[in-house]
Amino acid sequence: MSALIDLATRLLVEAGRTILDLAPIVGVLGGFQFVFLRKRIPNLKRILAGVLWLAIGLTLFRVGLSISLVPMGADLAKALVEGGGSGLALLAFAALLGFTAALIEPTLVATADRVRDLTGGAVRPLALRVVVACGIGFGLLLGALRILHGLPLVWLIVGLLLVIALLARLAPKPVVPLALDSGGVATSAVTVPLIAAYGVAIAQALPGRSPLADGFGLVVLALLSAAASVLVFFIVQAWYQSRGGSGV
Amino acid sequence: MRVEFVWIVWRTARDVAPILGIVLFFQLAVVGGAPAELTERAIGLVLLLLGLALFVRGLETSVFPLGEAMAEGLARRGSIPLLLGFAFALGFGSTVAEPALALVAQEAAAVLSNGSTSSPSLIAAVLRIGVSMALGLAIALGVLRILLGWPILWLVLPGYGLAAFVALLAPTPLTDIAFDAGAAATSAINIPLMLALGIGLSTLIRGREPLVDGFGLVALASLMPMLAVLLAGLVLR
């Protein structure tokens, strides 16, 4: 019974936070609409209903995330480290966690759908999401490697930037902005909390590595790796198409 | 509408299945037993699923159409300062109360306040406002880019290069946090708004391709907060 009350409290608190989160932007949009635009918004009721669903969905989602995947991921990370197991298990877990988290990232889902609309169906949403998720997984793999071996973050970033610069030259020009955005899009509501929990759990379980193992740096590596991954995907697709294959 | 909702829930369930599978696999293989607090975790997963479905649905029926309509409406008025002001306000307003950012700001403040006289909550608040302003500036810059047709690479790569350069030259305790701050700032609410703004503008303006020019805002929005926090680390050292 107390667990139920606890859950209800969490939901209320999170609902409050969500309202607070949405308030400024609703104010901005409403303000600009009222002051500068003044013409009636089509489908206003539908849009307001959508905002309500969004708010409810965000609340449920954040609470659900915080009491399920986040603690589960953290417990697992801790167990993996303490089990004295191989760094390999840690790396595999990091990569898989990143991959699957990115796959369910709502902003990526919505973006992939939008890309499908914009390309007239030429880019399938699931394909794009899987490609981005692979990038995120790889980025987390790099991050975990960094934590285990104490590799400096900035050099890894510089390395990824050089790879991206090279890939961007090879890729069809229209896809570059999308690729660059993919990383930021995929690191939002799901991956950032999960990665943070994972990083903190590792930091606490690996004594003597504290500065590096703060878990920071994982997200930016994932972000850049995702951009590279999308570029590779489109390079391969363009190459494949130029040889007469059908699109993805 | 009902049927569509059911389909979204099904798709979400299908999407969450792999992550559930992975976590359960590791749970059983590594820990060798059921996770602690099984019921609570299970309920959490249901909430997660439902929340995701509702959220995506809400996005697609509100934020995208509204954002694009407003972007087009404001662009039609032909005032660039108005458009840039809107972009900035959008970025600032959608980020300032972002929980993920609040968390990162808290961590950064804890690191900074070791050995400083200011209170951590003040530092955290300053960081949040600073990051939100940086994000607002980024979106304004991104809109300018769309209007003027600058290639995105020319902004993003040198920007990240600058960030790496600053981090190498003057490492501070905030350096690592700075890099993640950008990704933390771009989250569930401002990303869809940025996309709506970018795509809306590109659809309206002649000579701009929505698929090509509509993107790039998120990349900039991830970059500027990074630079802002790196600079903050330098200044507050």
- Residue-averaged pLDDT of chain B: 84
Q: What's the helix-strand series of chain A? A: HHHHHHHHHH
Largest sheet of chain A: none
The 3D shape of chain A can be described as: flat
Q: What is the subunit organization of this protein?
A: heterodimer
Tally of contiguous helical segments of chain B: 10
Distance between the termini of chain B: 55 Å
Radius of gyration computed on alpha carbons of chain B: 21 Å
- Fraction in beta strands of chain B: under 5%
Binned, the helix content of chain B reads: over 70%
The total beta strand count of chain A reads 0
User: What value does the Rg of chain A take, in angstroms?
Assistant: 21 Å
> Structural class of the secondary elements of chain B?
mainly alpha
Shape of chain B: globular
Low-confidence stretches of chain A: none
Task: Describe the protein's architecture and organization.
The complex is a heterodimer of chains A (248) and B (237). Chain A is mostly helical and 248 residues long. The mean pLDDT of chain A is 86. Chain A is built from 10 helices and no strands. Helices cover 80% and strands 0% of the residues of chain A. Chain B has 237 residues and is an all-alpha fold. The longest helix of chain B has 39 residues. The mean pLDDT of chain B is 84. Classes of the chains: A mainly alpha (248), B mainly alpha (237). Chains A and B meet through helix 1, helix 2, helix 3, helix 4 and helix 5 of A and helix 1, helix 2, helix 3, helix 4 and helix 6 of B.
Features:
heterodimer; A: 248 residues; mainly alpha; 10 helices; B: 237 residues
Brief overview:
The complex is a heterodimer of chains A (248) and B (237). Chain A is mainly α.
